[in-house]
């Protein structure tokens, strides 16, 4: 066949382009080094035209068939688990009460407690249960015991056992004169005296509620020192570092944490400005050498963006009452109202539900629940129906959401 034209070994076929389809490309690693996490994948709409892949707009691919952009993943099982203390005695000497126990995040290899954040992905057994201490002596048939049953009030009570003798909570819609002196004395004369002395050992663990103040965190000794700043909803806090004697090479740092920001630093702190973008802020410094620390000045101003709803409430300890729903004119029924609770860093929060009424049985659906969030660990607990509950925080911040 030399000299004759040779036929082509291939010829095109199916010249019509293929229908658009979704293409999945792995784009990231698992979000968790152990336990259940999420892996991000890139999802694009493509079409094959004459053997070539063409990128199309997503609207041209079937929406109902679009793969998830995040998928569950497990690299290995975590080496942490929840552990619990023994149950406490019944809270009442007679009638119905509750028992509680403390939960710990445990490293099973070393049998030592670790930060609860390592266990937050694992389901946890209950830490509160009901108990009965027998009938009360004064119980009368038909009336029930004093220690049992619901109190006929339409409110829940927030109690801090460590500060029961202090003043009622401040909603901060009150004038400054209504704020008890115990909550603000570190922002006034005592703070100025401490600054002259160059040491404020008593400032650690306190809550500042004034609109502006200088906080001297130097000279408090070695270890961690935390202070909290609180203002009404609708304001935001800015902090400037006036002085810093932190030893950065020794690992001394300062942490600023708010609902919408998280920032650490050591070098170039003086004259730097930190905007929390919210009405509460925690400042925590880790000092290894006695005498070191920072001096801060904070101010509050009207927030540039509304980050809350009209029915939301802000509470500052040591105790108070929460009532829901909040009656507002023209309030939409689908609004989820929240209550933000912030107390001094040295304190913890306890919430006890006294009375829950969801109306008729037809209204008691899975959409009716109360969600309580521990801000320090971001763990949440959900309480359904007419369930009475007792909840305790691991840190000094908590949030409550009332759904339906």
TrEMBL record:
<dbReference type="Pfam" id="PF19030">
    <property type="entry name" value="TSP1_ADAMTS"/>
</dbReference>
<keyword id="KW-0677">Repeat</keyword>
<dbReference type="InterPro" id="IPR000884">
    <property type="entry name" value="TSP1_rpt"/>
</dbReference>
<dbReference type="GO" id="GO:0005576">
    <property type="term" value="C:extracellular region"/>
</dbReference>
<keyword id="KW-0964">Secreted</keyword>
<keyword id="KW-0732">Signal</keyword>
<dbReference type="GO" id="GO:0031012">
    <property type="term" value="C:extracellular matrix"/>
</dbReference>
<dbReference type="InterPro" id="IPR035914">
    <property type="entry name" value="Sperma_CUB_dom_sf"/>
</dbReference>
<dbReference type="GO" id="GO:0006508">
    <property type="term" value="P:proteolysis"/>
</dbReference>
<feature type="region of interest" description="Disordered">
    <location>
        <begin position="172"/>
        <end position="199"/>
    </location>
</feature>
<dbReference type="InterPro" id="IPR036383">
    <property type="entry name" value="TSP1_rpt_sf"/>
</dbReference>
<dbReference type="GO" id="GO:0004222">
    <property type="term" value="F:metalloendopeptidase activity"/>
</dbReference>
<protein>
    <submittedName>
        <fullName>ATS13 metalloproteinase</fullName>
    </submittedName>
</protein>
<dbReference type="InterPro" id="IPR050439">
    <property type="entry name" value="ADAMTS_ADAMTS-like"/>
</dbReference>
<dbReference type="GO" id="GO:0030198">
    <property type="term" value="P:extracellular matrix organization"/>
</dbReference>
């Amino acid at each position: 066949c030399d000299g004759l034209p040779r036929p082509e070994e291939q010829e095109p076929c199916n010249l019509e382009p293929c229908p658009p389809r979704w293409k999945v490309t792995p784009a990231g690693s698992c979000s968790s080094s152990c336990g259940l996490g999420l892996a991000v994948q890139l999802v694009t709409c493509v079409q094959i035209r004459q053997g070539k892949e063409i990128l199309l707009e997503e609207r041209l691919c079937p929406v109902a068939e679009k793969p998830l952009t995040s998928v569950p993943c497990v690299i290995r099982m975590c080496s942490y688990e929840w552990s619990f203390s023994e149950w406490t005695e019944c809270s009442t000497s007679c009638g119905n009460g509750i028992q509680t126990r403390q939960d710990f995040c445990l490293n099973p290899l070393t049998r030592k407690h670790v930060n609860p954040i390592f266990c937050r992905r694992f389901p946890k057994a209950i830490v509160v249960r009901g108990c009965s201490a027998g009938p009360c002596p004064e119980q009368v048939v038909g009336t029930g015991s004093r220690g049992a049953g619901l109190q006929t009030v339409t409110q829940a009570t927030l109690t801090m056992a460590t500060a029961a003798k202090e003043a009622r909570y401040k909603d901060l819609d009150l004038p400054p004169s209504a704020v008890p002196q115990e909550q603000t004395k570190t922002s006034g004369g005592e703070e100025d005296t401490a600054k002259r002395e160059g040491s404020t050992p008593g400032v650690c663990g306190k809550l500042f509620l004034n609109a502006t103040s200088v906080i001297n965190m130097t000279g408090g000794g070695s270890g961690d020192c935390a202070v909290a700043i609180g203002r009404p909803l609708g304001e935001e806090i800015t902090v400037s570092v006036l002085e810093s004697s932190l030893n950065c090479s020794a690992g001394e740092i300062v942490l600023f944490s708010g609902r919408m920001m998280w920032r650490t630093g050591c070098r170039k702190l003086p004259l730097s400005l930190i905007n929390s973008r919210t009405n509460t802020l925690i400042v925590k410094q880790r000092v290894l050498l006695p005498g070191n620390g920072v001096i801060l000045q904070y101010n509050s101003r009207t927030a540039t963006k509304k980050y809350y709803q009209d029915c939301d409430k802000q509470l500052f300890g040591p105790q108070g009452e929460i009532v829901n729903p909040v009656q507002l004119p023209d309030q939409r029924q689908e609004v989820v109202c929240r209550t933000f609770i912030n107390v001094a860093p040295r304190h913890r929060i306890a919430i006890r539900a006294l009375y829950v009424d969801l109306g008729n049985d037809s209204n008691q659906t899975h959409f009716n629940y109360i969600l309580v969030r521990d801000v320090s660990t971001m763990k949440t607990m959900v309480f359904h129906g007419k369930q009475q509950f007792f909840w305790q925080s691991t840190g000094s911040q908590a949030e409550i959401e009332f759904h339906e």
